[in-house]
């Protein structure tokens, strides 16, 4: 096969690793559900939601999508740009607060 | 037919690793993504663009929710179900999450068996993945019809801020579309694997090119991404 040598080293990892990650994702999802089930509120709720979310996302990208075994050139090209979305988030948080303030100031509390 | 033109010579020297490797890979006129085929690199870049699409949807939802003066409907109650007389908050969404995670698990195993050239197991695992995906879409259809019957519309709902409906239909609808396309993609590739296209080097109906087992991993990348997006939707839309 002419093109196998120029392409692709294959991602071959033990099945056990996938089963472990699968189990971890189940446990983390169950914990996320419990946050809502027990009705946690405030800072605890938000921080737990974000922690479980990031752990799940990290496991999926690193192991299921094999990002942990790719070269840094690909990893950074794919994972750094989404971080810039956080700048957009910061902009829009400030904008939302301004819109809310304007609405409250000019339209009262009812729409 | 002559042998395909090599655009990059076989690598003789070991590539540097870590940060030195990052600089070296990007530094000169060469193939930047070593040891990754164009198909896989392009799927990653497509997924990056899709990340921005979903990122913008979630941002729009954040702005709508932060800037409204009307209280946001409580998702815990909106998506609650009565099962056998017990009131279960958010239960349908939890089940959907488990279904999608299971499909990701079977997909990861399918990729593994694909690289072992185990045709039957690969095809079966891909079909199971597609089945989980179809189940997910079915449950989403149930959820949509339930909410529509309760009076949720893109322009209003009985419980609070009008933007709830538009955010919900836009975000889950776009995600459901991705799952649906993923199921179709899985079925096409599972059929190719089952028929042994990658052993017999049968040419594809659309591209007229020979396929390789790597396409299973590329399909897997797309499928895991769909699961990944759901992790964020679950956290921000349903739990927050």
TrEMBL record, chain A:
Signal peptide start-end: none
Compartments, as annotated in UniProt:
Cell membrane
* A Pfam family annotated for this UniProt entry: COX4_pro
Q: Does the keyword rRNA-binding apply?
A: no
Q: How does it sit in the membrane?
A: Multi-pass membrane protein
Any idea which UniProt keywords this protein has? Answer: Cell membrane, Membrane, Transmembrane, Transmembrane helix
Q: Give me the segments passing through the membrane.
A: 15-35, 47-67, 73-93
- The name under which this protein is listed is Cytochrome c oxidase subunit IV
| Organism annotation | Sinorhizobium kostiense
TrEMBL record, chain B:
Q: Where in the cell is it found?
A: Cell membrane
Q: What is the lineage of its organism?
A: Bacteria, Pseudomonadati, Pseudomonadota, Alphaproteobacteria, Hyphomicrobiales
Q: Which UniProt keywords apply?
A: Cell membrane, Membrane, Transmembrane, Transmembrane helix
Is Cell membrane among the key words of this record? yes
Give TM segment ranges.
41-64, 84-111, 123-142, 162-194, 215-239
Q: What is its main location?
A: membrane
Q: What is this protein called?
A: Cytochrome c oxidase subunit 3
PROSITE patterns reported for this sequence = COX3
* Occurrences of domain Heme-copper oxidase subunit III family profile (ranges): 43-240
Q: Does the keyword Ribonucleoprotein apply?
A: no
What InterPro entries does this protein map onto? Cyt_c/ubiquinol_Oxase_su3 (IPR024791), Cyt_c_oxidase-like_su3 (IPR000298), Cyt_c_oxidase_su3-like_sf (IPR035973), Cyt_c_oxidase_su3_a-hlx (IPR013833)
Record Pfam families = COX3
Organism, per UniProt? Sinorhizobium kostiense
Task: Tell me its family.
Answer: Belongs to the cytochrome c oxidase subunit 3 family.
Question: Which domain of life does this protein belong to?
Answer: Bacteria
Q: How would you describe this protein's topology in the membrane?
A: Multi-pass membrane protein
């Amino acid at each position: 096969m002419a093109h196998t040598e120029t392409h692709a080293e294959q991602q071959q990892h033990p099945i056990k690793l996938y089963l472990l990650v699968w189990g971890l994702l189940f446990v983390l999802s169950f914990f996320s559900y419990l946050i809502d089930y027990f009705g946690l509120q405030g800072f605890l709720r938000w921080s737990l939601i974000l922690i479980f979310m990031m752990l799940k996302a990290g496991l999926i990208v690193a192991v299921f999508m094999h990002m942990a075994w790719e070269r840094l050139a690909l990893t950074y090209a794919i994972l750094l740009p989404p971080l810039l979305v956080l700048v957009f988030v910061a902009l829009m948080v400030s904008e939302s607060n301004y819109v809310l303030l304007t609405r409250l100031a000019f339209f009262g509390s009812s729409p | 037919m002559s042998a395909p033109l090599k655009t990059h010579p076989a690598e003789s020297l070991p590539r540097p690793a870590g940060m030195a490797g990052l600089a070296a890979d990007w530094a000169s006129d060469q193939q930047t993504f070593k040891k990754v085929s164009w198909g896989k690199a392009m799927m990653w870049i497509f997924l990056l663009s899709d990340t921005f699409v979903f990122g913008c949807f979630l941002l729009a939802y954040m702005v709508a929710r932060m800037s409204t003066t009307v209280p946001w409907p409580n998702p815990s109650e909106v998506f609650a179900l009565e099962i056998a007389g017990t009131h279960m908050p958010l239960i349908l969404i939890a089940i959907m999450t488990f279904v999608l995670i299971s499909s990701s698990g079977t997909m990861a195993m399918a990729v593994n068996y694909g690289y072992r050239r185990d045709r039957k197991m690969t095809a079966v695992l891909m079909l199971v993945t597609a089945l989980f995906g179809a189940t997910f879409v079915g449950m989403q259809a149930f959820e949509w019809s339930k909410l529509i019957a309760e009076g949720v519309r893109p322009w209003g709902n009985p419980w609070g801020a009008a933007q709830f409906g538009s955010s919900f239909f836009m975000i889950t609808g776009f995600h459901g579309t991705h799952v649906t396309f993923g199921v179709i993609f899985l079925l096409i590739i599972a059929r190719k694997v089952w028929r042994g296209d990658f052993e017999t080097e049968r040419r594809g109906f659309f591209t007229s090119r020979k396929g390789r087992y790597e396409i299973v991993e590329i399909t897997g990348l797309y499928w895991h991404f769909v699961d990944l997006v759901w992790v964020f939707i679950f956290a921000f839309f349903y739990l927050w």
